[in-house]
């Protein structure tokens, strides 16, 4: 089993989730090969490349950039296809897609 973590611009979330749904690999209602899709709003510390998206976080006391963090778990044989779907749908714009091997997983009811 693999885990994907992706970070990208917030306005790209609809394109990414639509691409995952349309792929047929991530229909969580029927338990396909893609499970536990989570989406979070996160803040990344500002860099000089982020002039347009810069915000100021009062809680951190630092300039930050708002991003979406998408996480999901999937079977090994679909990892390349899912990572490519996310990468393509999150463009144009900066972002990161990380893939991790998590071994086996147990579903608890």
UniProtKB/TrEMBL annotation:
Pfam families to which the protein is assigned, alphabetical: P-II (PF00543)
UniProt-listed Gene3D superfamilies: 3.30.70.120
Entries under InterPro entries matching the protein: N-reg_PII (IPR002187), N-reg_PII-like_a/b (IPR011322), N-reg_PII/ATP_PRibTrfase_C (IPR015867)
Protein's recorded name: Nitrogen regulatory protein P-II family
Lineage: Bacteria, Pseudomonadati, Pseudomonadota, Betaproteobacteria, Burkholderiales
